[in-house]
Amino acid sequence: MAARMALRPAPLWLPVMVAVSLLRGSCLGASSHSMKYFVTSISEPSQGLPHFVEMGFLDGHVFVHYDSHSRKEQPRVSWMEKVGKEDPQYWDRETRRARVTEQVFRHHLETLRNRYNQSEGLHTWQWMYGCELRGDGSKGGFMQDGYDGKTFLTFDKKTLTWVAPDPQAQITQRKWDAIPGYNQREKAYLEETCIEWLEKYLSYGNETLLRTEPPVVTMSSRTEVEDGMETHICRFYGFYPREIDAFWTRDGEVWLQDTFHGFLAPNVDGTYHYWISIQIDPKERGRYRCHVEHDGLQDPLDVELKEPTNSKSNLWLIIIGCVVAALVVVGVIAGIVLFIIKKSQDGYRAASTSDKGSSSSDQGSNQAI
User: Fold this and answer.
1) pLDDT tens for residues 313-361?
2) Which residues in the chain belong to E strands, given as ranges?
């Protein structure tokens, strides 16, 4: 049977949320690792873009890719070449599966266009799925499908059923729920097979994915002209992995009042940066600390607040710099969204025949809808 995993095309903002989730992940706790696949098929691509794209992400970084132009599953990171050396048939197998999915998704688009009584034109079928190995040892997984930017089906692992938001989707829901053992196999893929491949890929890319780089911590401050209050910004640069515990303390206790958290974002070298700020009465400056914990640090850091020395204009440049950095990330996300919506909207997945791979479930979006 053709393999499958699920990507649901929730509203049109889903690609943005997907991109943000890939960039941000969790800010707290021990290191976690994830493997996610995004796939999109588009009925009428424009400007020479492919009508089908699959992309695989490991810890938020693209590691495999397939599209209807190249028609080949290809590595996007150097350490994935180890897979082909260990298993010479790996890339041919993944390519065959992706080609099957490409053809199946074409049929999905035609079936749903008729089911929704729509005219020919631009339509998309999306599929998103993956798994996560959290720092506390727990595991997570998800599967979703979507049509024309709206949620079509979502897999509920607890009830072993598909959730459908409208009557047209319920037709597919009833079909898939009625297939003997199908939902059980989907759950097994997410909780077992997917995790096994995630751990295997981590072993291949351990020098990159399992490394630790401590954050460089800096503090900047300014005095508000209006009320004399002080704003302090604690920033963290160049750390990896992305999970970081950073917060303000007052008299040694966690202090959340009058605080603001910046955007956890990647640097060009694969590390991350982040910042937090707080507004306080200058008379109480000595009571506060910027507290940070990270796997790259042997011990937590507690950084004292300093008396503001830079002018308001210079401080605003710092704040603007943070905003610009966030906008750059948003720009990257927007680029991903445009690439994905036109080129295939988000993408990775794979279809399979009898062979099983990291992106293989047992049926899925390759199952007749």
Assistant:
1) 444 544 555 454 455 444 544 444 444 444 333 333 333 333 456 776 5
2) 33-42, 52-58, 61-67, 74-75, 124-133, 139-147, 150-156, 161-163, 216-223, 230-239, 245-250, 253-255, 259-261, 265-266, 272-280, 288-293, 301-304
